[in-house]
């Protein structure tokens, strides 16, 4: 593993909390993600199924976790199935986790090779009445043409055991995962620290006529050099008008004199993610108009983040954030009070310049699992990311921090990431 060992107590406790919520005489089956092929004999980078990782800490493909808390034999209450190395795989792929290593990482005492799964499940199926199965239901994109290892497991189980009752793993994990343990918070902090280092590298590199992807490379370098698993997502390095396209990430344009660059980026460390956004001037000094827009967005971030506290509903938070942005848009001369009074409530005037939500859960997924009908609670980690996008002026500004909800408010986990205008300008000047 690139990252330091995660305390095994995290995964033991996660399994205990999960199994406490399972129905009597039920078992859960969680499978790893696939290694996805690219072209010829190449593959895409592996990314573990996050529910499986949450319950086991195993970061390897071809892995199955079976939890059967009511099993008569104690050793059968948690079994991890892993792939076994052989002469061929040792030559071509190197070694896989040994049983001892899998045991040390997960805290599971019963480790079997994956070819033993079907025979083992057959023994349990006669006694168990309910199967909990995982599925990619949290994904936001349409995946009707894709079939995952989870899809194949669901199909196989229902063909093999059609008379059993089936339940969803995500019904439990969507309740558990939003509340982060101290170990998880530490991992998010480590991911954020990689982003801080990458941002400082960007501040030293920024100059007129640099390519957007050159700045992206600085962020990626800091992540990989310090043991990050990968970028949390493909960085958005959007100069000038490109910043007005919310998911722009081709990052192949030239950063021009007098433009501002929006950088939406994050690092993944130990499978936990950071997600931050900053805007910086290409020539090292914000123009008067850029300062106006930036200060408006920063005001909304500072005031809006105060709403991230226990008991607040997401919809109420978003309404308050929209009001903050609306007020700033009037100050900036982009909309008028008369336009607000005459607006269609379904299509408010501010939507021309601000068109997205500003808070999402953060953790194993960048947009982590959680029900937005559930009020914010102590231990949740959420982003705050207001923005203003003025396409006609070629200015797009978004600022984003990551916040840990505490008993009385929140803690900014990305506090070390420079954000004040004077600080950013001075850092760019001093790094030259």
UniProtKB/TrEMBL annotation:
PANTHER family: XAA-PRO AMINOPEPTIDASE 3. Keywords: Aminopeptidase, Hydrolase, Manganese, Metal-binding, Protease. It comes from Flavobacterium humidisoli. The keyword Transport does not apply. This is Xaa-Pro aminopeptidase. InterPro entries: Aminopep_P_N, Creatin/AminoP/Spt16_N, Creatinase/aminopeptidase-like, Pept_M24, X-Pro_dipept-like. SMART domains: AMP_N. It is an enzyme of class 3 (hydrolase).
């Amino acid at each position: 593993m690139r990252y330091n060992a995660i305390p095994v107590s995290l995964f033991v406790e996660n399994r205990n909390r999960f199994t406490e919520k399972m129905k009597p005489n039920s078992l859960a089956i969680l499978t790893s993600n696939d290694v996805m092929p690219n072209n010829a004999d190449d593959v895409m980078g592996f990314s573990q199924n996050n529910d499986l990782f949450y319950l086991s800490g195993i970061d390897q493909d071809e892995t199955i976790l079976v939890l059967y808390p009511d099993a008569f034999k104690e050793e059968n209450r948690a079994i991890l199935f892993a792939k076994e190395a052989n002469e061929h795989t040792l030559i071509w792929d190197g070694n896989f986790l040994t049983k001892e290593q899998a045991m040390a990482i997960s805290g599971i005492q019963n480790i079997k090779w994956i070819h033993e799964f079907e025979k083992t499940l057959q023994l349990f199926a006669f006694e168990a009445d309910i199967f909990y199965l995982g599925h990619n239901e949290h994904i936001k994109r349409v995946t009707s043409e894709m079939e995952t290892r989870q899809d194949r497991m669901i199909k196989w189980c229902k063909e093999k055991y059609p008379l059993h009752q089936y339940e969803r793993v995500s019904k439990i994990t969507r309740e558990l995962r939003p509340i982060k343990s101290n170990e998880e918070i530490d991992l998010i902090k480590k991911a954020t620290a990689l982003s801080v280092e990458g941002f400082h590298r960007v501040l030293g590199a920024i100059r007129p006529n640099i390519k957007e992807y050159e700045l992206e490379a600085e962020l990626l370098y800091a992540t990989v050099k310090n043991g990050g698993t990968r970028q949390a997502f493909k960085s958005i390095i959007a100069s000038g008008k490109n910043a007005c396209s919310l998911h722009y990430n081709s990052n192949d344009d030239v950063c021009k004199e007098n433009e501002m660059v929006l950088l939406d980026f994050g690092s993944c460390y130990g499978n936990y993610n950071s997600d931050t956004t900053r805007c910086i001037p290409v020539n090292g000094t914000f123009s008067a108009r850029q300062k106006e827009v930036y200060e408006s967005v920063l005001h909304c971030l500072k005031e809006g983040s105060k709403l991230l506290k226990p008991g607040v509903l997401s919809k109420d938070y978003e309404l308050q954030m929209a009001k903050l942005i609306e007020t700033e848009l009037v100050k900036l001369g982009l909309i008028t009070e008369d336009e607000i009074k005459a607006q269609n409530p379904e299509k408010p005037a501010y939507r021309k310049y601000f068109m997205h939500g500003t808070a999402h859960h953060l953790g194993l997924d960048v947009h982590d699992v959680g029900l937005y009908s559930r009020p914010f609670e102590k231990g949740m980690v959420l982003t705050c990311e207001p923005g203003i996008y003025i396409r006609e002026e070629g200015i797009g500004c978004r600022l984003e921090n990551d916040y840990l909800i505490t008993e009385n408010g929140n803690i900014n986990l990305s506090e070390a990431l420079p954000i004040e205008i004077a600080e950013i300008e001075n850092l760019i000047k001093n790094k030259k």
